Automatic annotation (TrEMBL):
Belongs to the purine nucleoside phosphorylase YfiH/LACC1 family. It comes from Schaalia odontolytica. It catalyses: S-methyl-5'-thioadenosine + phosphate = 5-(methylsulfanyl)-alpha-D-ribose 1-phosphate + adenine; adenosine + phosphate = alpha-D-ribose 1-phosphate + adenine; adenosine + H2O + H(+) = inosine + NH4(+); inosine + phosphate = alpha-D-ribose 1-phosphate + hypoxanthine. One of its GO terms (molecular function) is S-methyl-5-thioadenosine phosphorylase activity. This is Laccase domain-containing protein. CDD domains: YfiH. PANTHER family: PURINE NUCLEOSIDE PHOSPHORYLASE LACC1 (PTHR30616:SF2), UNCHARACTERIZED PROTEIN YFIH (PTHR30616). Keywords: Copper, Hydrolase, Metal-binding, Transferase, Zinc. Purine nucleoside enzyme that catalyzes the phosphorolysis of adenosine and inosine nucleosides, yielding D-ribose 1-phosphate and the respective free bases, adenine and hypoxanthine. Also catalyzes the phosphorolysis of S-methyl-5'-thioadenosine into adenine and S-methyl-5-thio-alpha-D-ribose 1-phosphate. Also has adenosine deaminase activity.
Length: 252
């Protein structure tokens, strides 16, 4: 697992564990892995982070939910429902593709995780790392506006600068799509269309997301590693039986 201090918060990225299986190091419960092994990995991850972790049930939606710590409970502000605590170190899953937590005044607030295996993971930090967010932005969610929705939710909580970190995803030279899909995507998001390294139609989600965020006044950092090209990362395009890595942000 790689980790770094970033924008007042801590950011961690799980990676493929050494081994021969396609699921070594997987943290996703939806990919055919043994649930008990996944729970063990998640618990070990929470122990290493020193925080519980909030997980999402990601469905390529544009939903971004706001969470608040209320005593010993973690509450979804939108539904007014308390999150489940299904296993040690684990909260959720939240039925959304984006979560924001306002951790001001809540020392030890839980971390937020976004799972990917080619899609775009984005984490956000505001208020010196006390307001953080994690977003899963696949093609549908990104073109549907989930990143802008996350920025809007953060700005509804506090003024001041917002930082975004775009984690490893499939790059524009590898993300091959049908020509018609590339044309439709370009019409919605000018500049997203590109070509693969072998000359076919493709989309460049990381750089399109960076441009969109910069246009919203957000400071952007990018981890430019391509999931398809980097064997230390899971990639559905490279192996459809693969697991999922998690980009995790820990509030200050």
């Amino acid at each position: 697992m790689t980790e770094q201090l970033w924008a007042g918060a801590r950011v961690h990225l799980t990676e493929v564990d050494p081994g021969t299986g396609a699921l070594c190091g997987n943290v996703g419960l939806h990919v055919g892995d043994d649930p008990s092994l996944v729970r063990e990995r998640r618990q070990s991850l929470a122990q290493r982070l020193g925080r519980d972790v909030v997980w999402m049930d990601q469905t390529h939606s544009t939903r971004v939910e706001l969470l608040r710590v209320c005593g010993d409970e973690l509450v979804n502000v939108d539904s007014e429902a308390a999150l489940e605590h299904p296993a040690p170190g684990e909260w959720g899953p939240v039925d959304a593709d984006g979560v924001v937590i306002d951790a001001r005044g809540c020392q030890g607030a839980p971390a937020l995780a976004v799972q990917t295996a080619d899609c775009l993971p984005v984490v956000f930090s505001a208020a010196s790392g006390q307001i953080v967010a994690a977003v899963h932005a696949g093609r549908r969610g990104f073109l549907g506006g989930i990143i802008a929705r996350a920025v809007e939710r953060i700005r509804s909580l506090a003024d001041g600068p917002i930082d975004a970190l775009i984690g490893p995803a499939i790059c524009g030279s590898c993300y091959e799509v049908p020509a018609g899909m590339a044309e439709e995507s370009e019409a919605l998001m000018p500049g997203i269309r590109t070509l693969t390294s072998w000359g076919t139609s493709a989309l460049d989600l990381p750089h399109a997301a960076a441009s969109s965020l910069e246009a919203l006044g957000v400071d952007v950092d990018i981890d430019a590693r391509c999931t398809r090209e980097d064997p230390s990362l899971f990639s559905y395009r490279r192996d459809s039986s693969c697991g999922r890595q998690a980009l995790i942000i820990v509030p200050a």
